[in-house]
Amino acid sequence: MRVVCLSGGVGGAKLAAGLHDVLAPGELTVIGNVGDDLEILGLHVSPDLDSVLYTLAGLNDTERGWGREGETWEALESARSWGGEGWFMLGDRDIGLHLVRSQALRRGETLSGVTGRLIRSAGLKTRLLPATDDRLRTQLVTPAGTFPFQEWFVARRHEDEVDALRYDGADVSRPAPGVIGAIEDADAIVIAPSNPFVSIHPILSVPGIREAIERRRVRCVAVSPLIGGHAVRGPVDRMMRRLLGGTTPALVTMCYKGLLDALVIDAADETAETDGAVVVTDTLMLDRESARRLAQTTLEAAMETPS
Ligand code: FO1
Fold this sequence. Notes:
alpha/beta; seven-stranded parallel β-sheet; 12 helices
């Protein structure tokens, strides 16, 4: 069974790992967000791709949610002491990956090319594709000004309310090689419990990707990022309240208008307003086993024959 999963960082990576575990080797393709990417200290960092890579490989820090387990921070401390930027926490182990990626990109390799090499170096059979090899950057429009994603999220601790989003570069971007083919060949499409605005919409803003999903003949199922109307982590609930006026499953479905056959929601949201088919389960992924359970339920929802 070939499955495509659209994913952002932390929450998406957990479901991707669950899918990776329950599917046969090579059956999963993850299409990752690159709207969060940044260039810092001369390094190209792709936080969402890295969260997926580290989580699939079991190298991720489960407490922090991002970066590598057992991390040290010597290089960053040194850079800071020499007057370098120190607001974005790059650990020593993590930097090793950014060095390899940045060198490859500088030599003219594509982001999808180097990401494929990294995945193979980790011994993984799952495919991880950036939505695009082109430059696409999410910008948050707030009352305090417009900020690139990581400046708003990390440096400003996502305290500014968001009035609108821009996906700079999306209009002229092209899907990375393999993205459209993977969607067209998939037996099911899964949208991970990531933030729709900053993780999934940037993927869908690449011309051709949304259209390929709209053309599908298989089912497309999303997992809600909310539990009891609250974000498991991050600002998705605040963003939904400000941009959409609430945090119901119906509003999550609205974020993916025209794309979903079903939405997987947590039991805590069962009584809230829904729109279309929903599957109710426990969506909290506390460990790899609960991620596998959620992945299994999501795949069952994706294979159901519509009545
Ligand atoms: N998140 C933070 O809140 N603070 C950080 O300093 C930070 C550094 C960082 C470095 C590498 C990486 O892969 C992720 C990092 N993140 C950090 C997480 C990241 O900003 C977000 O989780 C994602 O971009 C949102 O999907």
